Amino acid sequence: MQLKEIFEYIEKIGFLIFSTIENGCVHSRIAHFYACDDEGLYLRTMFIKPFYRQMIKTGNLAVCGMYPSTQISGSDENGVPHFEPGFTIRVTGDVRELPEDEIRKKAETNEQFKVALFDMKKYPATRNFIMYRGKGEIYDFDYEMVNRDHKLLRTRFAFGGAEYNPPGNTIIKERCTGCGDCFDVCTFKAIRPGNPYTMIGERCDECGSCVLVCPEDAIMQPGTI
Ligand code: SF4
Ligand code: SF4
């Protein structure tokens, strides 16, 4: 997945939750990426804000958001909430500050940077950052399968040299006896019968039910993205 495609998902959401860490404490706020090019994703803040200080100190940023709605639209008889089908996105990565002249240069060929120029003039304390390396996941969901053939589908991505682990559990084929217990317990259609059974990682919610029931201890839990 290219940065441009990732940015299209981000733009659909608009404002996202941006998290940083300082002295062992996680801080979150609502912000947005205002631009994208082949080098990364761009954001801005003011240099007197803790957000600025935290990004300068750690160089790390985690971002997440949800589309089209974060509202709970109802619940079933067990109290399980319903969500309108949509997607979530999460990205975690490395950031660095960009000098003003670099933003001015980018604005000559990319309209998206003009808003940064406007803000830099209006608020002289404005500072720009680029997330130049990162990895993440689009989590497309339709739990009732109204519009899609899956309850969920994960698409993982990385840019700027970062790497990610594939989503979902793994079945160790040498241990699988084909009993089918994992298939019976999976409500996400993430396990394919066969000899051995196999995992469709993109559909796996990593709920762990199959891990608990496998009599052969044949299912490995996922790594982190
Ligand atoms: S529960 Fe374990 S042994 Fe049985 S089919 Fe699934 S992976 Fe194979
Ligand atoms: S972890 Fe959950 S969603 Fe994933 S394959 Fe196992 S039972 Fe299905």
By helix and strand content, what is the structural category?
A: alpha+beta
**What share of the residues does DSSP label as strand, in percent?**
35-45%
How would you state the average pLDDT, rounded?
95
Shape: elongated
How would you summarize this macromolecular structure in one to three sentences?
This protein has 225 residues and is of the alpha+beta class. It is 21% helix and 36% strand.
Keywords:
alpha+beta, 14 strands, 8-stranded antiparallel β-sheet, two-stranded antiparallel ribbon, 225 residues, Alpha-Beta Plaits, binds iron/sulfur cluster, 21% helix, Pnp Oxidase, Chain A, 2 domains, 36% strand
3D architecture notes:
There is one protein chain. This protein is an alpha+beta fold and 225 residues long. It folds into two domains: 3-159, Roll (Pnp Oxidase, Chain A), CATH 2.30.110; 170-220, Alpha-Beta Plaits. It is built from six helices and 14 strands. Strands 1, 2, 3, 4, 5, 8, 9 and 10 form an eight-stranded antiparallel beta sheet that branches. A two-stranded antiparallel sheet has the order 6-7. It has a two-stranded antiparallel ribbon with strand order 11-14. A hairpin with a 5-residue loop joins strand 6 (74-75) and strand 7 (81-82). Bound molecules: iron/sulfur cluster (2 copies). One iron/sulfur cluster is lined by residues 168-169, 185-186, 188, 190-191, 199, 204-210.
